[in-house]
């Protein structure tokens, strides 16, 4: 093997070694990047959990302060049940008493303070249905009283949510609800019948707001299902059932049920001492809960610190790997740029040079022959072009002469046609004039004969009267007078009938005019309403489209994805764009995403739609099948958070995956494993 061949082999081995190092470096760098992405995602998730725990701690501290304030107020004024509705309620009542002469009717409230129960066991059910908001609200007779009461609230209220003010006309007689009162079975009782309300204004307000006459109190859930799940068993006038635990049941054919989160009576027939004990227990529970959350908060903070340290190490390592990769790439480029050694074969090159020279001589001789032929052809072309130019010149002069002759011929033809046409027209005109002359002569003879006859008749009547008016004027006036006489004779009717018709026409005109004015007003109002609704529809459409886009973008950012929704309302098209993992794959269609990424994007899209519409039921089946653990945990947290914020709706999530990490307050129903027959 020659030295050059050895150099070529060594160069090839060096290139292969460099490429292997480069691939290894790329793999190592990609692994570090993946680890960094996982750590960054985990830090972001843990930081979000940390912020959530901080908010929980702040909320618990606020609850503890509120409970302590209520506790201190109860201890200072033991026995004052108004404090159950808020520490500022006694001050509000004092101000109402102070300004009672300024009210047209003294406000009532809190409404719960006017209510007593005939049977205390229904306290939870009654409070669950009437809600703490209604029990703590006030009612006034009119708008002015509402404004005055609101001024009192603004003056004495120290914190927290102000009571609701219900404005409704006061009646000193209770509403008659006997026609709509629920027909309760022996073991049940109507909500209206279990309440004792002496003040008719408060009783009427409760009936108007909650329609309590149609509510049935039921001792157990089993009895509620038995009564309300079948339309044949539903008591008459029953609009809704409430169990002793506060669970709500709606009767068939719209049978449904909602579990109650209200487990302890707080307002109706509650002793202040018992309430003090409850507040102290609540404060202890909240403090314990705060302590547990603080432990979680510290643990997460520690984990975040450790992860940040790992993240810093990985970032330093990636920088070093990038530098090493750049150095290897530089060496590889230098090696590729080095010229490859070649073996010199002089004899072979000299043989090729001789062959090329021979071919070059042959081609040169051939080019000379072709140039001679080309000169002859060019000479013939020049000769033919001269002949062609002379022919074109002679042809051009002949064409000019032909055009002049054709123009003269056309002018002569036009003149001949004009002469022929004029002669024919003159003959026809002369014939017509001769005919008219003959007719005029015959008419003149006839009129002279009639003139003589009329003159004789006129002379027999009397002498001729001289007048300056012309005969046609007199004849026209006579004809006009005759027509007027005939019309008057024909149209003349009874005066009473004409008067009656006139009044009828006036009334009809007035009616139609008023109707037309009313219709024009209606049309104007309808046009204004249509314009308002069109603007409102456009604003609503823009709002929902923008809100869906914003919700989708924010939920995608939870996993550090970039996503957008394009909604074309005109063409009725919707387009999803997703860039996963900070653009590592670039802009792509959802069909090109991985299974987990597609599932997460789908859930994000559904979640953004849920923000803008409300249904009683929501179902998601196998939404997390293709997700990794991190995506799955985050998606489930989002869905459960959404469900908790919409407690009046029902959410069902079906999954074959493990759900042991979900909070215990979430209802989980595990289906039996399917039977599989071994073949």
TrEMBL record:
Range of residues in the leader sequence: none
Gene Ontology terms: cellular component: nucleus; site of double-strand break; Smc5-Smc6 complex
Keywords, sorted A to Z: ATP-binding, Chromosome, Coiled coil, DNA damage, DNA recombination, DNA repair, Nucleotide-binding, Nucleus
GO molecular function terms noted in the UniProt entry: ATP binding; damaged DNA binding; single-stranded DNA binding
Subcellular localization: Chromosome; Nucleus
Domain of life: Eukaryota
Biological process (GO), any one: double-strand break repair via homologous recombination
InterPro entries registered for this protein in UniProt: P-loop_NTPase, SMC_hinge_sf
Coiled-coil region: 15-77, 276-498
Family to which the UniProt record says this protein belongs: Belongs to the SMC family. SMC6 subfamily.
Protein name from the UniProt record: Structural maintenance of chromosomes protein 6
């Amino acid at each position: 093997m020659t030295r050059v061949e050895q150099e070529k082999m060594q160069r090839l081995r060096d290139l292969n070694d460099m490429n292997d190092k480069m691939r290894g470096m790329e793999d190592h760098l990609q692994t570090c990047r993946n680890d960094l992405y996982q750590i960054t995602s985990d830090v972001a998730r843990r930081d979000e959990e940390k912020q959530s725990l901080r908010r929980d701690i702040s909320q618990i501290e606020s609850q503890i302060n509120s409970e302590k304030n209520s506790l201190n107020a109860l201890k200072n004024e033991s026995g004052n049940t108004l404090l159950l509705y808020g520490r500022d309620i006694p001050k509000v009542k004092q101000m109402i008493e102070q300004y009672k002469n300024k009210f047209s009717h003294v406000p009532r409230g809190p409404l719960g303070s006017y209510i007593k129960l005939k049977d205390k066991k229904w306290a939870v059910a009654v409070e669950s249905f009437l809600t703490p908001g209604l029990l703590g609200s006030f009612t006034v007779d009119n708008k002015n009283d509402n404004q005055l009461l609101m001024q009192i609230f603004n003056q004495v209220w120290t914190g927290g949510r102000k009571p609701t003010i219900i404005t409704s006309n006061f009646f000193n007689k209770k509403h008659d609800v006997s026609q709509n009162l629920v027909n309760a079975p022996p073991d049940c009782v109507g909500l209206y019948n279990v309440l004792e309300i002496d003040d008719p204004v408060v009783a009427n307000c409760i009936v108007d707001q909650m329609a309590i006459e149609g509510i049935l109190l039921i001792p157990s859930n089993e009895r509620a299902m038995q009564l309300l799940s079948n339309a044949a068993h539903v008591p008459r006038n029953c609009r809704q059932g409430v169990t002793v635990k506060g669970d709500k049941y709606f009767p068939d054919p719209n049978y449904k049920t909602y579990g109650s989160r209200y487990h302890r009576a707080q307002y109706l027939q509650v002793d202040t001492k018992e309430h003090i004990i409850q507040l102290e227990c609540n404060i202890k529970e909240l403090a314990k809960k705060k302590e547990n959350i603080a432990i979680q908060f510290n643990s997460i903070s520690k984990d975040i610190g450790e992860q940040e340290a790992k993240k810093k190490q990985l970032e330093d390592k990636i920088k070093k790997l990038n530098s090493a990769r750049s150095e290897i790439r530089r060496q590889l480029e230098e090696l590729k740029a080095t010229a490859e050694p070649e073996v010199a074969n002089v004899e072979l090159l000299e043989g090729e040079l001789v062959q090329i020279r021979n071919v070059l001589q042959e081609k040169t001789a051939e080019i000379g022959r072709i140039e001679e032929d080309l000169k002859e052809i060019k000479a013939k072309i020049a000769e033919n072009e001269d002949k062609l130019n002379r022919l074109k010149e002679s042809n051009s002069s002949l064409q000019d002469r032909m055009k002049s002759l054709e123009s003269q011929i056309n002018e002569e033809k036009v003149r001949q046609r004009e002469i022929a046409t004029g002669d024919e027209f003159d003959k026809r005109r002369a014939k017509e004039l001769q005919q008219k002359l003959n007719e005029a002569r015959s008419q003149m003879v006839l009129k002279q004969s009639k003139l003589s006859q009329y003159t004789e008749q006129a002379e027999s009547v009397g002498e001729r009267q001289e007048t300056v008016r012309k005969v046609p004027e007199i004849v026209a006036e006579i004809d006009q007078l005759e027509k007027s006489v005939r019309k008057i004779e024909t149209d003349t009717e009874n005066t009473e009938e004409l008067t009656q018709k006139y009044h009828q026409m006036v009334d009809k005109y007035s009616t139609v005019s008023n109707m037309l004015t009313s219709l024009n007003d209606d049309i104007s109002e309808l046009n204004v309403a249509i314009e308002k609704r069109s603007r409102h529809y456009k604003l609503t459409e823009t709002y929902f489209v923008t809100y869906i886009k914003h919700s989708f973008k924010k939920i995608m950012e939870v996993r550090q994805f970039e996503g957008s929704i394009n909604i074309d309302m005109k063409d009725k098209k919707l387009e999803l764009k997703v860039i996963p993992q900070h653009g590592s794959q670039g802009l792509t269609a959802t069909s090109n995403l991985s299974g987990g990424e597609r599932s997460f994007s789908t859930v994000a899209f559904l979640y953004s739609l849920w923000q803008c519409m409300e249904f009683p039921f929501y179902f998601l089946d196998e939404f997390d099948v293709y997700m990794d653990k991190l995506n799955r945990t985050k998606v489930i947290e989002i869905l459960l958070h959404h469900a908790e914020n919409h407690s009046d709706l029902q959410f069902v999530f079906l999954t074959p995956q493990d759900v042991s990490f979900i909070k215990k307050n979430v209802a989980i129903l595990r289906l039996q494993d399917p039977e599989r027959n071994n073949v």
